[in-house]
Amino acid sequence: MTDLLKLSGVHTHIGRYHILQGIDLTVPQGQVTMLLGRNGAGKTTTLRTIMGLWQASSGEISLGSERIESRATPDIARLGVGYVPESMAVFSDLTVKENLVLAARDGPLDDSQLDWIFGFFPALRRFWLSRAGSLSGGQKQMLSIARAIIEPRKLLLIDEPTKGLAPAIVMALIECLKEIKRKGATILLVEQNFFAARELGDNVLVMDNGTIVHRGEMAALAADVPLQERLLGLSLEAHQ
Amino acid sequence: MTELAATDPLPKPKRDIAPVLLPVALALLVIPLIGSTSSWLTLTAASLAMGMMIFIMASGLTLVFGLMDVLNFGHGAFIAVGAYVATLVLAPFAASIQADSLWMNLAVLAPAALLSMAVSGALGLVVERVLILPVYGQHLKQILMTTGGLIVAEQTLYALWGPQIIPMPLPTSLRGSFILGDVAIAKYRVLAMLIGLAVFIAIQLVLNRTKLGLLIRAGVENREMVEALGYRIRRLFLGVFMTGSALAGLGGVMWALYREQVHASMSDDLTVLIFIVVIIGGLGSIGGCFIGAILVAMVANYGGFLVPKLALVSNILLMVAVLMWRPRGLYAVTSR
């Protein structure tokens, strides 16, 4: 399995704070890599640094054969990286349709892709012409993910998609992400929900204090409660 | 919420029409206070014309504010430069301006306005690259830089044209009024209303019917996410800044014709009104800016007629009232 994304010795400073302290990680093509860790471990900063939203102070980031650590965010996005931030960041003043039109960078909306998305998230069809700001938190998350997959992407960076959502919506999101995975997408997923992590993850990276402290298979971590307690402070079951 | 079947029609977006009703309510409210219908109609027409001119000048600023989070205190320079460029263009064509033919007048006036827009837009390019670019995200420095830029622009105009007021007479065919019974509505005010309305419709069409407009509206709300979707927002910033400057130039020409004079500090009083319009409209909202401009002009005209002593503070009171009702403006677009 080739690595689609590779970070080597990446450091990121935000103001005078040294957040990422030499991150080394790889994300294999066609797999879902979970990024776990306590709050403040540097998970969101890692995604934002890959996306170019915060510039790496040193180190190398490669997407396939391309070096991207010095590239601007739009250029990284145009290389095929989709980003779903923790805040969802839907455009509240735009309708659901307009949010997706904007995300479909390469042309008009593809009806078959849209039908596929509506299959998972029927609420988006229902509120097609409603302002995104009027959607519920779960619906906004659906829109945020739909925006990232409205066109094929090489790599999806998704930050805590299930955070604060009702169980039924979490299940719908998991099904959607599973389907995206079955289609061969490569995903780097920050997630605190154990069920989601176990269902979706092929590999796992655990962060602490701005460094990767564990890497391995998700199934192995899910089966090893003492390891979970050592790495995350409590077992993943408790995160459900 | 009840689920819709797959075949059900999709719901239409809800419209927030309360702010739209404000100017209508205000206009109706003052009828008994003014007493005379003809005076009310004249004042209302004057308000709409003044509002349209302020809207043209403020529309660019609200997008610059909303999209780029830039406090441009030098916006008035584009207004004055636009007006001065028009005087330069119109000077050799005095005969055409004085001709009693609408088409001859417009044949000179339209190119003058377009050239003013081009020069103001080009000046906007220089200002964005030289003054704004180094201070993105730093509000205090933006205020210092753009205020400094305004002073430099005004002093340059003084140095080039001198301190005297330059007359800018209305073209002959735009003088006088349309008489409807005992109501007189100045022809130029009708033209100003039409141009303002055309600019508003054009901006709305671009913002709502084109992908460029979607990008601007999205960028006003969340620049970072627009970039994460693969769009280079800096270029968009520059385009919006230049368009805003060009519109200020057009507004400067229209205001100069309205007052029939040009001077270097002509924008000083206008800038206060423009900022009030941008704030009460909601930063980045063209619809809010349009309604805000009409409200400001109505308060200035009705207030000046009914309570002249309150004219100076009437728009500040309007701003306070609107912000108490809607703290982020009539149509809040950004969270700022």
Automatic annotation (TrEMBL), chain A:
- Report keywords, A-Z: Amino-acid transport, ATP-binding, Nucleotide-binding, Transport
Stretches assigned to the ABC transporter domain: 5-234
Top-level taxon of the source organism: Bacteria
Coiled coil, from the record: none
- UniProt GO molecular function: ATP binding; ATP hydrolysis activity; branched-chain amino acid transmembrane transporter activity
| UniProt KW Lipid metabolism keyword | no
Q: List, in alphabetical order, the GO biological process terms annotated in this UniProt record.
A: L-amino acid transport
Q: Decide whether keyword Transcription is in the record.
A: no
What is stated as this protein's family in its record?
Answer: Belongs to the ABC transporter superfamily.
**Its biological purpose:** Involved in beta-(1-->2)glucan export. Transmembrane domains (TMD) form a pore in the inner membrane and the ATP-binding domain (NBD) is responsible for energy generation.
Q: What is this protein called?
A: ABC transporter ATP-binding protein
UniProtKB/TrEMBL annotation, chain B:
The UniProt entry's sequence similarity note says:
Belongs to the binding-protein-dependent transport system permease family. LivHM subfamily.
Bilayer topology = Multi-pass membrane protein
Name one cellular component (GO) term: plasma membrane
Q: Which UniProt keywords apply?
A: Amino-acid transport, Cell membrane, Membrane, Transmembrane, Transmembrane helix, Transport
* GO BP, sorted A to Z: amino acid transport
Name-wise, this protein is ABC transporter permease
| Gene Ontology MF terms | transmembrane transporter activity
Where, per UniProt, does this protein localize? Cell membrane
Q: Which PANTHER family match?
A: ABC TRANSPORTER ATP-BINDING PROTEIN (PTHR11795:SF442), BRANCHED-CHAIN AMINO ACID TRANSPORT SYSTEM PERMEASE PROTEIN LIVH (PTHR11795)
Where on the tree of life does the source sit, at the highest rank?
Answer: Bacteria
Q: Which organism is it from?
A: Bradyrhizobium nanningense
State where it is primarily located.
Answer: membrane
Pfam families the UniProt entry points to: BPD_transp_2
